[in-house]
Amino acid sequence: MSRLKIREIQQQDNQQVKKVIQNVLVEMGVPKVGTAYEDKALDDMTAEYKADRKAYFVIEDNSKIIGCCGIGPLPEFETEICELQKMYFLPEARGKGLGSQMMDTCLKFAKNQNYKKCYIETLPYMKDACKLYKKTGFEELDKPLGNTGHYNCTVWMIKDL
Question: pLDDT tens across 20-66, in order?
Fold first, then answer.
């Protein structure tokens, strides 16, 4: 019996989360540079998300991390705009509504932190992710916001909270 639960990241999750993120990026054919693949934060996501107005959530299935996503302030817009960060799901987590549940968890956290808008960067060939973002109310932008360092991400979206 599957025991899925969404919860905040814990120290013992760090290596599993890093593997999920990097494995999905490789699976999708994403460049390793200019994307989340090379982010230093992947080495200790628990420490990265301990700061104010930040949180990182995982989906756990019988002690295995199968998905993850976080919220943090968008550089250069910290007080008003948060960024939906590092949302990735292993193949076994896809197509089950978990993306919507995770999105709901993250956006509720963002609202509770008094952010006014949520921003996301992705790639055009990550079609399922783009579909989920649009379904959730995100709208495309003509150019990026903030300085995320993910220069290979070419789809930028924002949503009022």
Answer: 999 998 998 887 777 787 888 899 999 999 999 999 999 999 999 99
Angle at 143 between CA 137 and CA 147, to 5 degrees: 100
* Whole-model pTM over 0.85: yes
pLDDT digits (tens, 9 = 90+) for 79-138: 999 999 999 999 999 999 999 999 999 999 999 999 999 999 998 888 888 999 999 999
Three-state SS string over the chain comes to CCCEEEEECCHHHHHHHHHHHHHHHHHCCCCCCCCHHHCHHHHCHHHHCCCCCCEEEEEEECCEEEEEEEEEECCCCCCCEEEEEEEEECHHHCCCCHHHHHHHHHHHHHHHCCCCEEEEEECCCCHHHHHHHHHCCCEECCCCCCCCCCCCCCEEEEEEC
Rounded to an integer, what distance in angstroms lies between the CA atom of residue 43 and that of residue 39? 8
Cβ atoms of 66 and 89 within 8 Å: the answer is yes
Owner of token pair 């060939």? 125
Q: How far apart are CA 134 and CA 113, in angstroms?
A: 23
